[in-house]
Amino acid sequence: MIIENIETFRTAVPLTKPFKTALRTVTLAEAIFVKITCDNGIAGWGEAPPTLVITGDSLASIDGAINEVIKPFLLKKNLLNYEQIFQGLKTILVGNSSAKAAVDMALYDCISQNCALPLYQFLGGYRSEIETDFTVSVNSPEEMGADADAYVNRGFNVLKVKVGIGDVATDIARIQEIRSRIGKDVKIRLDANQGWKPKDAVRAIRKMEDLGLDIELVEQPVKADDLDGLKQVTDSVDTLIMADESVFTPKQAFEIISRRSADLINIKLMKSGGIYQAQIINQMAETAGIECMVGSMIETGLGITAAAHFAASKKNITRFDFDAPLMLARKAISGGIQYNGRTITLPDRPGLGIENVLLEGGISNGKQ
Q: How far apart are CA 256 and CA 254, in angstroms?
């Protein structure tokens, strides 16, 4: 199973509504798609979106890393020796986690197709269905309340609410408005995207606890490199605290786990560099009794399908944040995961289960 060719394609899909966080506002889901073709005719797909404020990766850097460094390394390699390949991919260049993740997805797509198994079964097959939350972008309390109400009416029973812009009082007002609109039966998760200082985070979370706003967890309340501050928040509140931008690598996960700086870890393939490293992070967390969520950037159904295969395969992954394709004006693939409201069903086709990839202008790049 020799790797014969690697191709990259650019795509862009508009969002139906701007996606706003404490770090950025996104109106267009841009990405590099990668296609890896083997000598037995199997082709695998991967995706990497640019997230400069999180991973530091741009469209140009992703494309350059794949074509200038990763492609020469992979060509003519035997994919049956995939442990060697994934070890090499990890060390062939520093950083560039999104480029590595796209290639990693495509490699796993090829490998699991060769085994005639859906990827989630190849990775462990713990479940074949999962449920996603839906994200409420940060806006005025009134707009966020209306958005939250609309998403609940669409059948979502877990909302991930963005905060961290403006003062703490405004963030609390946002959550009060949302809770008053959706009632007590819907879970609320907060994501501050590094937008608070440790003491402000403690004050905000304690106030929300006192108000009975019933927050399930708070994700990345402080700056990514402030592990002491993250631990201060974790130790000072009853609400569960989740590390996100603080954890890209297994080494960073070890730091979080050994310090007990957070109660939970959010794994994203764009941070970890793909499924190979993501599995290590999840296994470390599981050993320490720490559950994981798998989330994503603003990705199309291609990248989310790969992330969902990984997430569905593991028992320790108990929370899922895969709403990005539902925010897009059009699909970028056919096949892959299927949505029925909040329920995601994994495909039974081998590999990722993608039938066609639709590039800019609706051009089909053909079946696997």
A: 5
214 plus 308 within the same structural domain = yes
How many structural domains is the chain composed of? 2
Decide if 35 is catalytic: no
- List 20, 160, 162, 314, catalytic entry: 162
Range of the domain at 45: 3-117
Q: How far is CA 156 from the centre of its chain?
A: 18
From 35, 71, 160, 268, active-site residue: 268
Per the annotation, the verdict on 268 as an active-site residue is yes
How deeply is 64 buried, as exposed, middle or buried, from its count of CB atoms within 10 A (0-12, 13-18, 19+)? middle
The reply to whether 310 and 265 lie within a common domain is: yes
pLDDT in tens, 147-203: 999 999 999 999 999 999 989 999 999 999 999 999 999 999 999 999 999 999 999
Check residue 351 and give its pLDDT.
98
- Rounded CA separation 312/190 (Å): 23
Does residue 182 contact residue 149 with C-beta atoms inside 8 Å? yes
Phi/psi at 342 (5° precision): -85, -10
Model pLDDT for residues 304-332, shown as the tens digit of each residue: 999 999 999 999 999 999 999 999 999 99
* 63 lies in the same domain as 202: no
Predicted TM-score of the model (pTM): 0.95
The answer to whether residues 88 and 176 belong to one domain is: no
Whether residues 131 and 112 fall in one domain: no
Instruction: Name the band, by pLDDT with cuts 50, 70 and 90, for residue 366.
Output: very low
* Angle between helix 275-287 and 250-259 (nearest 10): 20
Same domain, 110 and 39: yes
